[in-house]
User: Fold RNA helicase from Dicentrarchus labrax.
Amino acid sequence: KQSRKIDGDKVDLAEQSLLNKLIRHSLVRNRNQVEVLQRDPTSPLYSVKTFEELRLKPDLLKGVYNMGFNRPSRIQENALPMMLAQPPQNLIAQSQSGTGKTAAFSLAMLSHVNPANKWTQCLCIAPTYELALQIGQVIEQMGKYCPDVKLAYGIRGNRMERGIKLQEQIVIGTPGTVLDWCTKYRLIEPKKITMFVLDEADVMIATQGHRDQSIRIHRQLTKDCQMLLFSATFEDSVWRFAEQVVPDPNIIRLKREEETLDTIKQFYVVCKEKEDKFTALCNLYGSLTIAQAMIFCHTRKMAAWLTANLTKEGHQVALLSGEMTVEQRASVIERYRNGKEKVLVTTNVCSRGIDVEQVSLVVNFDLPVDMDGNADNETYLHRIGRTGRFGRRGFAVNMVDSKHSMDIINQIEMHFNRRITKLDTSDLEEMESLMS
Ligand SMILES: Nc1ncnc2c1ncn2[C@@H]1O[C@H](COP(=O)(O)OP(=O)(O)OP(=O)(O)O)[C@@H](O)[C@H]1O
Ligand SMILES: [Mg+2]
Assistant:
């Protein structure tokens, strides 16, 4: 039934199913390990406290347990008391990918609002449409037992009547639309906002487009509006800038060697050109049937090329890139979340924040580079962080097709001081031993 063409090579089905078993086994075993990790002081999921001890309102506690959370992660345990303190305190917080930052600030917003007040009190902005949507879904789930707290989505395509004032206590959105809602449409009274959250805060304040809009929103808020900044990465220059923008912040910062997760194994494959990368990818994909995979390309054009070729080979592939309509984007990500497609080919639009538990493989079909062609370490960390969510195991595979891209791998290795292991995708035995 599941015949697979792997560029002429007939891969022995018995070998393949053995590999699948190994991978499936490691995924399942890992799920049971979350609780173990939460008691290991070296793990970012570690906590000494329980959710009860964090003094959440009973309705919120119910929401948390309803999501299947048993214990807070380290960032949740550390950040929640700071965010809920009176008088309010600002916070700049860094925590590894997939360690539960969303729940941390969602709980803070849900605790913070006064449901009796029918106006917007908390504003949360994130860099992409998909991410804002996802955060909103988490807030809705978490706030399931707080029926009086309402949420509005300040994202493209969500048209609102001009002149009315929103009654929703929480607005989550992307900077452009939220700015319009504050200024052009006046749906929100910025002076009444008492909590301002920036997810993926480093891109929100460092990349030009987002930065201008975020700053324009920020300028309209009162000076004692509480500010909460979250990300898995903060470049040094961004830290300095953040500390200038945010008065007297509490700071939760990782050491460089703590930024990457042990649970994500990193590899590179040496290829000649894009056709060769494609073959390597098919080999990998063929071996990882049960996994969901995310494949990153540098350009929309490359993403489209890759999608077309994978589809030609008979693979079920979804493509998500920035130029699609919001309806298309929403439906692609929803289908992928539900496992309708096992593979998502994308550009950097999906590099940050997207949380799909079953993703066990991330492929950098093109390596992340900045405008000068140097390694983009932050984007790299976010991309590989789409796998290995909350203690799960994951694999990241980088396609290297030139001396330049080998240099980039070396730069990334040096930056995080983490080994990236060479992988030969035509050697099934080697793959089996390395990826078990
Ligand atoms: N205390 C908890 N117990 C169990 N699972 C949790 C807990 N907190 C969060 N999770 C789960 O962990 C996953 C990752 O969480 P989240 O998306 O908030 O990570 P993140 O820190 O924002 O990562 P990124 O830097 O990639 O955005 C989610 O699926 C979430 O449901
Ligand atoms: Mg996140």
Notes: Residues 94 and 253 are 5 Å apart (CA to CA). Confidence is low (pLDDT under 50) at residues 1-11, 25-29. The radius of gyration is 22 Å. The chain has two domains: 3-30+33-255, 258-435.
